[in-house]
Amino acid sequence: MKSLTFIFVSLLSGVIAGVILAGVNYFVVEPFIDQAIGIEVDNRIATGEVVDSNELSSYRVWQKEGAFAAGAILGLTYGAILGIVYVLSRKYLPSSDDRKKALVLAAIMCLSLYIVPFIKYPANPPAVGDPETIGLRSSLYTGYQLASALIALGISILMYKLRRISYIKYIIPIFYLGLVASIYAVFPANPDEITAPMDLVNAFRAVTFGTMVMFYLVLGAIFGIMWHKFKPHETTRIAAK
Question: InterPro entries annotated for this entry (predicted)?
Answer without folding.
Answer: CbtA_put
